[in-house]
Amino acid sequence: MFPRPSLRMAARLTFWFEFASTYSYLSAMRIADAATAAGVRVIWRPFLLGPIFAAQGWPDSPFNIYPAKGRYMWRDLARRSALYGVPFRQPETFPQNGVLAARVAQLALFRPQGPAFVRAVYGAQFADGADIAERTTIAACLDRAGLPQHFLDDAGSPDNKAALRRATETAMQMGLFGAPSFTVDGELFWGDDRLEDALRHAFRQTRTAGA
After folding, report:
1. How many domains does the chain have?
2. At what angle do helices 135-145 and 114-126 cross, to 10 degrees?
3. Is beta strand 181-184 parallel, antiparallel or unpaired with respect to 11-17?
4. Is there a domain that residue 44 lies in?
5. 34 lies in some domain
6. Is the separation of the CB atoms in 155 and 103 below 8 Å?
7. Most buried of 5, 41, 184, 188, CB within 10 angstroms?
8. How far is the C-alpha of 186 from the C-alpha of 165, rounded, in Å?
9. Alpha-carbon Rg for the chain in angstroms
10. Does a structural domain hold residue 94?
11. Can you tell me the distance from the alpha carbon of 164 to that of 178, in angstroms, rounded to the nearest whole number?
12. For residues 184-210, average pLDDT
């Protein structure tokens, strides 16, 4: 798909994800391998869709507001999970409250194990059917990723809470309206099915800059 990347390349892509987002689950589980193959570095950015949906006049996920769309999404998610070899189990509650998970993820992503924590949270929700709003679930995900338990308490600090609000505000200012989203130098790609397009764009941008 991509030429062999040069060691001098520094292509970057920002991956904006929301833990309640079903399609973000698929991207989170496959973006690391896809980005490595493309020679692109991924910046993981959690944010919240609730304020963005509220600004559009949606009091709930559009998959709940429009039942036909929701039925299609769950079937499509099952098909795409099977295609990628990703386990899938529809959670009893949707959307789940991912605020705690996002706050912890902000701290986790300062460590190399951060992406592993993100994948653990998505797996707990969409493969195991666990409630990611529960501290015990997030604690288990920290263990799975090899990260310290004090992140659970640190996540509630005023500075960390403000950081998540700023990330969400930045996402809104950039024109994000859903998740997963990928940005490359201000160019927006939306949806799991646009991951490869975003990676190709990041790779081409680097080639152009280095020409």
Report:
1. 1
2. 130
3. antiparallel
4. yes
5. yes
6. yes
7. 184
8. 20
9. 17
10. yes
11. 16
12. 87
Residue type, 60: D
The torsion of the CA quartet 191, 193, 194, 200, rounded to 10 degrees, works out to 150
pLDDT at 115 over 80: yes
Q: Which of 105, 123, 202 is nearest to 160 (CA)?
A: 105
Question: Residue 34: which CATH number?
Answer: 3.40.30.10
* Mean pLDDT within 99-119: 98
Encode pLDDT of 40-76 as tens digits. 999 999 999 999 999 989 999 999 999 999 999 999 9
Cβ burial 32-47 (10 Å sphere, 16+ → b, else e): bebbeebbbebebbbb
Residue 180 near residue 24, CB atoms below 8 Å: yes
**How many DSSP H helices and E strands does the chain contain?**
10, 4
C-alpha to C-alpha distances, 135 to 39, 87, 127, 153, 155, nearest whole angstrom:
36, 23, 18, 10, 11
Q: What is the largest CA-CA distance in the chain?
A: 52
The number of C-alpha atoms within 13 Å of 190 and in the hemisphere containing its C-beta is: 8
pTM: 0.92
Reading the block at residue 128, the tokens are 């195991």
φ, ψ of residue 60 to 5 degrees: the values are -150, 175
